[in-house]
Design a protein that fits this description.
heterodimer, A: about 110 residues, mainly beta, six-stranded mixed β-sheet, four-stranded antiparallel β-sheet, 12 strands, about 0% helix, about 55% strand, globular, B: about 120 residues, seven-stranded mixed β-sheet, about 50% strand
């Protein structure tokens, strides 16, 4: 069975500051890892995903994440927060042979302050 | 662009009513999914489908059923709605051509906020 833990249900940063959203996973087989973003009153959209190969993955809107197998982590970062980044962020995992079923974390609400 | 549409953004129903939530995708995707989203719980998979007329239970199927008669349409049915089914319901689809099917991106609809009184 696979699972995802997102540390911090709410994160607040100042505009221009570093954004760091934490995600740890548990999986008995090599994982595929995803970050999705949900803006108010909208569905989820993909920010980035790790499948195989390079462990540093770049996504849309300046976000990136690094797969660290030894730490079972896939933290999301952005060097400089913008007001438009305020949203809820979800980390998710699927596994080889597991079909396309995603297991989601509980989400992190990002607030960006002036 | 992939487009996933859901029949209603907001829905209010009474306890015991039969409720249909419809989802349509326009990109010939094989896979379709229904999730419910609750604060503090994230998204939880209710049912999914890899092919027409095929369905599999997700993590929380109790109280729900699904129907997929056409490739582009996946319906979620609440046979007898209860107040604990008040939630946001999200539909998603993915390509499904990867033999292992695990790394496909899922594309989400805007969601239906269902209130059961």
């Amino acid at each position: 069975a696979q699972s995802v833990t997102q540390l911090g249900s709410h994160v607040s940063v100042s505009e221009g500051a570093l954004v760091l959203l934490r995600c740890n996973y548990s999986s008995s087989v090599p994982p595929y890892l995803f970050w999705y973003v949900q803006y108010p009153n909208q569905g989820l959209q993909l920010l980035l995903k790790y499948t195989t190969g390079a462990t540093l993955v770049k996504g849309i809107n300046g976000f990136e994440a690094e797969f660290k197998k030894s730490e079972t982590s896939f933290h999301l970062t952005k060097p400089s927060a913008h007001m438009s980044d305020a949203a809820e962020y979800f980390c998710a995992v699927s596994t080889t042979g597991g079909g396309n079923k995603l297991t989601f974390g509980t989400g992190t609400q990002l607030k960006v302050e002036l | 662009d992939v487009k996933v549409t859901q029949s209603s953004r907001y829905l209010v129903k009474r306890t015991g009513e039969k409720v249909f939530l419809e989802c349509v995708q326009d990109m010939d995707h094989e896979n379709m999914f229904w999730y419910r989203q609750d604060p503090g719980l994230g998204l939880r998979l209710i049912y999914f489908s890899y092919d027409v007329k095929m369905k599999e239970k997700g993590d929380i199927p109790e109280g729900y059923s699904v129907s997929r008669e056409k490739k582009e349409r996946f319906s979620l049915i609440l046979e007898s709605a209860s107040t604990n089914q008040t939630s946001m319901y999200l539909c998603a689809s993915s390509l499904g051509r990867d033999p292992l099917g695990s790394s496909d991106t899922q594309y989400f609809g805007p969601g239906t906020r269902l209130t059961v009184l």
